Structure formats: C-alpha cells, structure tokens
Amino acid sequence: MTDDQIRAEQTLVAWARIETWLEEHAPRTFQRLPAPATEDELRSLEQELDLTVPADVRAFYLVRNGTGPASDFDWPTSHDAPEPTGYFLPDGEGLGPLENLGTWFEGPVAAERLDDEPGQRYLPITTIDPDGFYGSFVDCTPGQGHGLLGNYAEADFPHPGEETFAAYLTKIADALSEGRSFGDGDHAPRVVDGRLDWR
Fold it and tell me: What pLDDT digit, counting tens, does each position of 6-52 carry?
C-alpha cells in the first residue's frame, strides 16, 4: 500500500470508531451527521482552489460532508433554527462542509499567506464559528509537508504542524473509547442532552 492508501484507510477506521461511539452515546450528534460529499464536488473544490486534497481528508469527505449539516456552519437566520451540533470535535471545532472550505480558504489563511510563498496551499478544514476565522488547516502544498495539519487564527500567521488528519481522527477515537481528555486538554468527552461536548 502507498502512504496515501494507508492514511485513507486509517481515516476510515478512525471515523468508523467515532461514529460507532456517537451512535451509542450521543445520538443527537450522530443523527445530524451529513451525507457524503461526491468525487465531483471534491474535484470541483480542487479546481476552484488550485490544490489537491490529501488522501485522508478526501476519504473522510467521501463518508461525511463535514461533522454537521451545512446550516450549522452558517449564521442562524432565525431563533427557531436548531442548535448546532456540528462543532463536537475537541476545542469546540467542527469540520465544515466542502461548500464552506472555499470561503474559508479565501479568508484568514489566504490573508496571512507569506508573499514570498505564492505556491503555498493551506486549506482550512475545521473552525469554531461560521466565519472560519480560527481553526486548523491541512497543507495542500506539493512537497514534504503535504497532508500535515496546522493551526490558523485571524490575526496571526498560520502555524504548520507535524500530524496528519488520519492521526488526528485516531487520537479523537482513542480519547472517546477511553473516556479521557484529548491531547493536553482538560476536558474529557461528555454527553449533554444527547450531544457530544468536550468543553
């Protein structure tokens, strides 16, 4: 197997574990998981943004188009809108649907891209709010860092990391199954009204 195939497989295994946990323990979160994205939608995003989505991120989106319905990642239009459940990852983050990623790409990450690195391609994939001003990105720049996650914030330069998306999901799956906090966080996973909440 190639490295890309291994990462894609690791993603599918980790995400299946997460969904199994959600279905058993946090049914409201599980029920609002969206349908898969399509290969055509992924190719369209790649053409629009002139990048290649890493294999592990692609594998996730072919199972679920984010961690909640698209409405969770837009500002609510009325007070009657259901409370968002898509921000259930550690630190209150959510994986946005493909249609949001292009908007986030043109936002804070693009604004902070260094002028002397015009070929740099950081694709924001998680956020803590609908504006997409804070969260994590995956490095889509061809070369050594391709596929690694990093963090971004509105008024700061993006900070590349050393972990793949597949490894990130595996750590979440491990923390859920063991009932412990994620990484250096202080909060173990808990369920509130049928929803997963790490905070």
Answer: 999 999 999 999 999 999 999 999 999 999 999 999 999 999 999 99
| Cα separation, 110 vs 133, whole angstroms | 11
What contacts 182, CB < 8 A, 6 or more positions away?
90, 171, 172, 175, 189, 198
Task: Estimate to the nearest angstrom the gap between the alpha carbon of 181 and the chain centroid.
Answer: 18
- Distance CA(139)–CA(81), nearest Å, equals 34
> What does the alpha-carbon distance between residue 140 and residue 39 come to, in Å, rounded to a whole number?
17
User: 0.85 exceeded by the pTM?
Assistant: yes
Candidates 130, 131, 133; CA nearest to 71 is 130
And the tokens for 69?
Answer: 């319905």
CA proximity to 8, closest of 48, 49, 42: 42
Q: How many CA atoms lie within 13 A of 33 on its CB side?
A: 22
Residue 59 CA to residue 15 CA, distance in Å, equals 10
| Partners of 134 in the β-ladder | 153
Domains in the chain and their CATH numbers?
3-71+86-180 (3.40.1580.10)
